[in-house]
Amino acid sequence: MADNNIRMPSCVVNGVGASPGIAIGRAFLLDRGKLKPRGEKISSDQVAFESERFLEAVTGARQELEEIKERTLKAGGSEVASQEHNYIFDVHLLMMKDKMLVDDTLTLIKEKKINAEWALSLNSEKIINFFKQMQDAYLRERQSDVAHVSERILRHLAGSDYDSIDKISHGVIIVAHDLSPADTLQLNPQKVSAFITDLGGRTSHTAIVARSLEIPAVVGTEYATEKINGGDRLVVDGIEGKIIVNPGREQLAAYQEKKKQYNSFQAQLILNRDLPAETTDGFRVALAGNIETPEETESIISHGASNIGLYRTEFLFLNRRTLPSEEEHFLTYKKVTESLPPGSTTTIRTFDLGADKIAESERFHEDSVNPALGLRGIRLCLNHQEIFITQLRGILKASHYGKLKIMLPMISGLKELRQALEIIAATKAELEREGVPFDAEIPVGIMIEVPSAAIISDQLAREADFFSIGTNDLIQYTLALDRSNEHVSYLYEPLHPAILRLLDQIIDNARKAEIPVSICGEMAGEPLYTLVLLGLGLDKLSMNAISIPHVKQIIRQSTFVEAQGMLEESLKMETAAEVEAYVAKEMNRRFPETFLMKI
Ligand code: PEP
Ligand code: MG
Questions:
Q1: What was the pLDDT predicted at 71?
Q2: Which residue of 407, 472, 506, 518 sits with most ligand 1 atoms within 8 Å of its CB, as the best mutation to test the pocket?
Q3: Which among 137, 152, 466, 522 could bridge 445 via Cys, Cβ 3.0 to 4.6 Å?
Q4: Which of 312, 357, 506 to mutate to test the pocket of ligand 1 (most atoms within 8 A of CB)?
Q5: Residue 289 carries which DSSP code?
């Protein structure tokens, strides 16, 4: 778009800096909101026109889907995933030919004298209800296909493209009301230089994936999609959580300079790659990486870590409908462990589906108003043991090829832990009977991310091989704030006295039981918090690749004694604001000009 076009005057949109970096580019508005079709009565002589309009929309939707199918298949991906996508496309294409969907909508237009949008909505609602009542889980799941197909046709009726992420062909900044973690995972960093969403918080999984892809992102802006037009020039400052819409010449020049400085700061940090994360007085902490997909191991290594402290395996299951088979689990974990340097450890977290990590499959869709408190994590695995056992068999088989650890998410008490341990023991016994080799000594640890687990961490420490603290959920549940909800993101306070006390208590209990303890929540990768966390005396911090060099630099330029002093001071304070102000002041004094993320 030419620069001399009339455009909105410059303005600033604020949000939450979710992934660091500066991007400058054009806005691409991605419509991920639900359409609200307008229903209208029509006269008898409009019936033919309305029917024609409907059939044209169906043809348009079919052609579009054929194109997407072709593009996706060409793009490749794992064979299983391709078969899966292919199958979904075929089901949708068939539905667009289906008598029940097409002919019955035409009949409704004619008989009820209503416009195509209204007729299609009524008809798809009827079909969805029909599938909902099916006994068979597979048939019940078809209701979401009907909803997707109908949505696509409605978009054609509205004359708007169903903006598809895979249609993006050149470098843009995506502006969307919301992106699911699965959407975000499909972004191609070569074509998307940043993204902005109205919804979301700093530890939402969408933000986590953005950091993994190393794409600057600002989330929780509330109104970005209303204030920004497609084609607007944008500056996205993922460090400060700010967007400059149509910046003036001077502002643009200032951000180009900031971008240059940030990039050269990052380039200089990477020089520490092969050095240990050790304080000047000799306290060493292991730095590990968090991954969502096997492809990310490369980035973890190139940023200077060799161990995976958290593999979020539920991402194996997003963007598809069928569960991974035992073989797929096995091959994936084997690939991850074999792509790391010899002797490295991979901590595989068993499925933590639920909350904002929603599987395509209707089988795991919860109609709950509080999905974060619903059937997620270990609860879901204990309720659907066949899924858990399939994954455990895959992990155990892969443990023969590299050092693996099993980590259980969302443990809330001893009963759950014991139940999971029993299943693991039974699975091992089964493999032994089958003569399949595996690591009989594979450590089984738990995430401490539910307040009840933190409170009884002394008891849990006696039965778990290790702890990894999931601060994202621990903060969410302790402070009672939805981590994906932008309206309460101001309450996300990792340095809240309640959180600091809990961390101190968990680590103390792990120490007493002599088990290793780490943090793998986003807090671990926040350079601003590095010294306070270091003061806790952790064994390991696990984080997204992009944070590793910065956190390492801070550790290497500090002493353990001063980190302990900072923690001690912080623990004496009464409010989160007090601790934050103190830590920010101290950190900015010690590390000026180092792009510490704004709190
Ligand atoms: C956490 O809760 O801190 C964590 C690491 O797990 P997730 O972000 O996947 O919930
Ligand atoms: Mg969690």
A1: 64
A2: 472
A3: 466
A4: 312
A5: E
pLDDT in the model for residue 180: 79
Which atom in ligand 1 lies closest to the alpha carbon of residue 473? Answer: 2
Residue 205 annotated in active site: yes
Taking the alpha carbons of 199, 203, 209, 214 in that order, is the dihedral positive or negative? Answer: positive
If you compute the radius of gyration of the chain from its CA atoms, what whole number of angstroms results? 26
Choice among 205, 303, 496, 550 that is catalytic: 205
User: What pLDDT digit, counting tens, does each position of 510-562 carry?
Assistant: 999 999 999 999 999 999 999 999 999 999 999 999 999 999 999 999 999 99
- In this structure, the number of other CB atoms found within 10 A of the CB of residue 8 comes to 11
Q: Give residue 153's pLDDT.
A: 87
- Right CATH for 44-158 from 1.10.274.10, 3.40.50.11090, 3.40.50.11500, 1.10.3720.10: 1.10.274.10
Task: State the Cα–Cα distance between residues 352 and 336, nearest whole angstrom.
Answer: 19
Q: Ligand 1 pocket: which residues have CB below 6 Å?
A: 310, 312, 352, 449, 470-473, 520-521
Is 520 tagged catalytic?
A: yes
Question: Using CA atoms, how far apart are residues 541 and 558, in angstroms rounded to an integer?
Answer: 16
Question: How far apart (Å, rounded) are the C-alpha atoms in residues 517 and 345?
Answer: 15
Ligand at minimal distance from the CA of 207 is: 1
Nearest Cα to Cα of residue 14 among 296, 223, 306: 223
Question: Cα–chain-centroid distance for residue 350?
Answer: 16
Residue nearest to atom 6 of ligand 1 (CA): 470
pLDDT value at residue 78: 45
- 357 alpha carbon, closest ligand: 1
Ligand 1 mean position to 90 CA, how many Å? 35
Burial 333-354 (b: 16+ CB within 10 A, else e): bbebbebbeeebbbbbbbbbbb
Ligand 1 atom at minimal distance to the Cα of residue 290: 5
Going from N- to C-terminal start, the domains of the chain cover 2-32+163-246, 44-158, 280-595
Query: What spacing in Å lies between the alpha carbon of 452 and ligand 1's midpoint?
Result: 16
From ligand 2's centre to the CA of 473, what distance in Å?
A: 5
445 CA distance to ligand 2 middle (Å): 14
Q: Which atom of ligand 1 is found nearest the CA of 203?
A: 8
Q: Which residues of the chain have pLDDT under 70?
A: 1-9, 32-38, 68, 71-88, 137-138, 141, 158-164, 166-167, 319, 355, 358-367, 597-599
pLDDT value of residue 72: 59
CATH architecture of residue range(s) 2-32+163-246: 3-Layer(bba) Sandwich (3.50)
CA of residue 472 to ligand 2 center, whole Å: 6
CATH code of the domain occupying 280-595: 3.20.20.60
